[in-house]
Design the sequence.
């Protein structure tokens, strides 16, 4: 008898006598979850049989359709392996189908990498599966173990954002129709995922009718109209959307996240049936209380660790929501591969928007807030700094020019004598529907209404001569003019019948803002040279002296906010 | 003979007091008669505040940029028209304005003229700088030939039915309505302008009510 034949007999005897794990001719033995070390000393050499066990790193739950899911490692620990050992891993479905996976043995681990698909049938449906690992040595199964795992469907279908600092936002032209005002109230859920009424039967929040994952809604970028949907009662998309939200700078937010499962054609499938799965807060958020066990429709609550909107600015934020499954034996939580990455746009405001009127147009308009955020440097939420940025933006960036013929307004009307009750057609102004030629009344309306929408308490004030029909002017650089001029008018007259400016409450120590004209900021504003000084928070007396050579003859009155239409 | 004498005396009296003769209440002026040559009406601006002029915006063919504004206010009296005129004058920043002979009162010249005639205020402003004197006279004559009658649009045109809770409806005004503005006046009511009319909604549990401001084709308001 050769040496190798004797060795084989020794192994067979050992296997049968010591553990009974190997049945050379018969069917595969039942799963072995644990076993005692197996060795036999033969006098000249010890032969060890491999042993298989489920690795503590074995992930029992995953969602192959989750964004970022790349692979599902099915990991088994092996001892006593030899170079010739072959590991195989097989998946059995509840329906009895079996799928062999490529597996390797290395460094005490038998592992198969599963991509979540089952051959030509595509991604595995949610449900329980049995993973069986087997070690073959010299063509024979010498060890086997099995365990169960669950394919689930995990996601989010609603994110509500709450907080005292949240403010509404208004779209001014729903569907492109001027005057089509559409408000997203402060209490409205801004992020939602759901099937459209036009979709085929079987569609669910997380999946299209064909089973493909439903794309998550990106931030709605249109600044004038909400997403439209002919199938909804009011023509505005109500199924999947992602609206920006506005917040008073420094606000903390509460996220109320509604969990979702369900697969195409089976809305009640996909949630974990036995495992304890939870949603994990993205960086910067903390769970309120213990995170609830995953269940379709369950709401998880989180708060911001620090404000996501510290300043007057536009913030585009991406949040990675992940999931964990708890190991029943150890109680430890293990990460489930993949994530739900949601995008959000937050606008930080100076303070609560402030208006003299309550009708539906007196809300922060999305395009206005976005514009102001772009003009401001975003380093603070200081009212004067933001007000100054609005003046600079209106003066420099909107392509406006002063009406050098008459100083006539285009977008604003005083509706009572004495420059009272101004009505500003902001809707047309945002389109420049009445042209780009304005006067001081318009400039005051623009600056003040923009400021009001981001929470700055600006009103319009009127400057007039105390007794005469007009007052003289120093050199000014009118909006849209490249240079300073003796007169703002083509006629050469260097006087105003009145001038509208913007500032705080007249009864307090207010400062002056004006985008109609820059003043000469040097010591002598009545003659060249000229130093451009935008009117961004000037003291009233300084401003009047820069505006006119007869500042002591001027009265400042009217203390109103414009009515917006 | 005595009757003729009385009638003649009345005529003389009226001639001496033109205000008495001209203070008639005109039933507006037909919008289609106001279009400047080679321009088309591209927009009608209605204020959310009552008793304000309607702005007609004209543009050159194929262009969206406005070329001329015509503001028209059909008041119930010449005093109404005069009030609109004074508000307009007040809003101009230029310190001294030339007067012009037109209508009952007028100001401006060249590219901008504002005037009143009877119960109607008109302000014309050409954004291209064209002289509008002749055009303004043309409008004045139109007003003088306009019929005497109601200065207000029919209330029937402005009627908007209330809406039951949880309902939405699109309200379309008659084609006699040139422009409109609808505002909700009860909790839970919403009104949004659409291409095919006004989308009215009642989101709350109670009946939604609305108020409409309209301008008819004779530029009368309600």
Sequence:
């Amino acid at each position: 008898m050769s040496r190798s034949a004797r060795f084989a007999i020794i192994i067979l005897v050992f296997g049968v006598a010591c553990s009974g794990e190997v049945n050379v001719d018969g069917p595969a033995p039942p799963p072995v979850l644990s076993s005692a070390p197996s060795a036999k000393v033969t006098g000249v050499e010890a032969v060890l049989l491999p042993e298989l066990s489920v690795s503590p790193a074995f992930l029992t739950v995953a969602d192959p359709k989750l964004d970022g899911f790349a692979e599902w490692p099915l990991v088994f620990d092996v001892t006593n392996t030899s170079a010739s050992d072959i590991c195989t891993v097989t998946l059995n479905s509840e329906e009895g189908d079996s799928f062999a996976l490529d597996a390797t043995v290395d460094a005490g681990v038998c592992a198969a990498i599963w991509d979540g698909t089952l051959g030509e049938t595509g991604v595995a449906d949610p449900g329980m599966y049995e993973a069986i690992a087997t070690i073959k040595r010299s063509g024979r199964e010498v060890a086997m173990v099995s365990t169960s795992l669950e394919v689930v469907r995990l996601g989010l279908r609603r994110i509500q954002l709450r907080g005292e600092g949240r403010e509404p936002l208004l779209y001014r032209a729903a569907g492109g129709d001027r005057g089509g005002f559409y408000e997203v109230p402060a209490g409205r859920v801004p992020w939602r995922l759901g099937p459209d009424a036009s979709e085929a039967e079987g569609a669910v929040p997380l999946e299209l009718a064909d089973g493909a994952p439903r794309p998550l809604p990106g931030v709605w970028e249109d600044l004038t109209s909400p997403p439209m949907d002919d199938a909804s009662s009011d023509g505005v998309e109500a199924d999947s959307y992602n609206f920006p939200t506005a917040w008073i700078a420094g606000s903390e937010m509460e996220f109320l996240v509604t969990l979702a499962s369900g697969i195409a054609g089976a809305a009640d499938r996909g949630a974990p049936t036995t495992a304890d799965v939870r949603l994990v807060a993205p960086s910067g958020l903390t769970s309120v209380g213990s995170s609830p066990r995953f269940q379709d429709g369950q709401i998880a609550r989180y708060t911001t660790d620090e404000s996501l909107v510290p300043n007057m600015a536009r913030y585009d934020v991406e949040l990675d929501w992940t999931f964990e499954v708890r190991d029943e034996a150890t109680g430890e939580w293990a990460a489930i591969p993949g994530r739900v990455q949601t995008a959000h746009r937050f606008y930080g405001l100076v303070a609560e928007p402030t208006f003299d009127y309550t009708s539906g147009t007196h809300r922060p308009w999305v395009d206005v807030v976005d514009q102001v955020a772009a003009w401001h440097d975003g380093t603070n939420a200081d009212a004067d700094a933001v007000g100054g940025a609005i003046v600079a933006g209106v003066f420099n960036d909107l392509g406006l020019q002063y009406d050098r013929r008459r100083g006539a307004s285009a977008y604003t009307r005083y509706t009572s004598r004495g420059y009272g009750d101004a009505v500003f057609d902001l809707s047309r102004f945002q389109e420049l529907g009445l042209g780009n030629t304005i006067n001081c009344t318009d400039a005051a309306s623009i600056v003040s209404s923009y400021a009001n929408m981001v929470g700055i308490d600006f009103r319009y004030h009127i400057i007039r001569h105390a007794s005469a029909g007009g007052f003289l002017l120093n050199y000014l650089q009118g909006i849209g003019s490249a240079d300073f001029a003796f007169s703002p008018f083509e006629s050469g007259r260097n006087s105003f019948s009145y001038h509208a400016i913007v500032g705080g409450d007249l009864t307090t120590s207010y400062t002056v803002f004006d985008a109609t004209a820059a003043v000469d900021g040097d010591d002598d504003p009545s003659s060249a040279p000229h130093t451009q000084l935008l009117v961004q928070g000037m003291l009233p007396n300084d401003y009047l002296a820069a505006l006119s050579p007869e500042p002591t003859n001027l009265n400042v009155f009217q203390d109103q906010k414009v009515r917006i239409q | 003979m005595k009757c003729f004498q009385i009638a003649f005396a009345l005529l003389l009296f009226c001639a001496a007091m033109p205000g008495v003769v001209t203070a008639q209440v005109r039933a507006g002026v037909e919008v289609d008669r106001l279009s400047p040559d080679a321009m088309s009406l591209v927009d009608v601006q209605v204020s959310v505040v009552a008793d304000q002029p309607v702005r007609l915006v004209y543009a050159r063919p194929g262009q969206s940029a406005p070329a001329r504004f015509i503001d028209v206010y059909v008041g119930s009296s010449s005093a109404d028209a005069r009030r609109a005129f004074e508000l307009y004058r007040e809003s101009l920043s230029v310190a001294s304005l030339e007067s012009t002979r037109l209508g009952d009162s007028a100001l401006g010249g060249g590219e901008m003229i504002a005037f009143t005639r009877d119960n109607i205020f008109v302000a014309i402003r050409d954004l291209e700088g064209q002289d509008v004197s002749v055009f303004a006279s043309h409008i004045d004559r139109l007003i003088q030939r306009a019929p005497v009658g109601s200065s207000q649009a029919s209330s029937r045109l402005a009627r908007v039915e209330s809406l039951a809770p949880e309902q939405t409806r699109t309200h379309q005004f008659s084609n006699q309505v040139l422009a409109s503005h609808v505002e909700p006046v009860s909790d839970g009511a919403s009104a949004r302008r659409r291409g095919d009319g006004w989308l009215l909604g009642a989101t709350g549990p109670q009946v939604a009510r609305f108020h409409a401001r309209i301008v008819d084709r004779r530029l009368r308001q309600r």
The interface with chain A takes residues 43, 45, 47-49, 52-53, 55, 57, 65-66, 69, 83, 86-87, 90-97, 108, 110-112, 125, 127, 129, 168, 181, 183-184, 190, 192-195, 199, 201 of chain B (CB under 8 Å).
